[in-house]
Amino acid sequence: MKKIHNEILNKLITTIDELEFESDFSIQKTETIIKLIIQSLSDLKEYVLKNGFKNTDEEIQFFKYQKPAIVSKLIYYNAVYKIETKKPYGEKQTKNFLTKELNKLKKFFDNNIDFYKYYRSNNSFLDENFFIRGKHDIRLWLDTFYFEADHRFCTSHDYKVAKIIANDLIQVYIEDKLNSNYRKVFDNSSLNWTASKTAMTELIYGLHSKGVFDNGNADIKLIAKTFESAFNIDLGDFYHTFMELKARKINRTKFLDSLCEALIKKMDEQDEK
Length: 273
Hints:
- This protein has 273 residues and is mainly alpha-helical.
- It folds into two domains: 2-181, no CATH class; 197-271, no CATH class.
- It is built from twelve helices and no strands.
- It has helices spanning 2-22, 27-51, 56-86, 91-111, 113-120, 127-130, 144-148, 158-179, 197-210, 220-230, 238-247, 254-271.
- Helix 2 packs antiparallel against helix 3 (56-86), helix 9 packs across helix 10 (220-230) and helix 9 (197-210) packs across helix 11 (238-247).
- The radius of gyration is 21 Å and the shape is globular.
- Pfam families: RteC.
- This is Tetracycline regulation of excision, RteC.
- InterPro entries: Tet_reg_excision_RteC.
């Protein structure tokens, strides 16, 4: 199960990355991404219904971690689509609208705080109630959504996990929009970044994690904006790109690893001269 899930997820992430890098937000692009995610979920469902699970542990792993990793993307992009298509004109109106969207996320958090604590604390004592099909307990924070879903491919709480993951991304997206009015505008540099946006995001977060700017006190947003200005690139929603990097199980530091390899190769070549 893990193998087929990773194949579907990695293929989906790669395709989304390619679409994200082609242009900024557009309704058509987001619609395309949503369709791709729905198809990926359909493929995953077909596999599950045909092959089932080897044991209880595999089923819990799937509904607690693997399925939510994909469903969360559907929730996120659907939310972005709705925000961008419903967003009003005018700076004040937009700010009020986005603030209300943030309040919706907080309301979900407040209404599900017990499950947030359970999930984020990596607890497992209720996993068989939450993440095994047909084991729902009406007393354990059930959503109406569950009763309308296909119980062959869902448990009482796998969607809630996906919602938690997605809401973190949605919050970052909205806050980035709210902060966009305060970003500094710099003169264009003569240097142009020609590697991918993902590569720059990986580099920025690596430098930020190492604390190389202002003794580790520099804000990640300021670092990103400085890089964008210095190298004539628009990173767009770089927080979301970082979340995608975190989600990868293989080569999460692919660009940084390639930098080390390139530098070592350069040193070795010079030593041979």
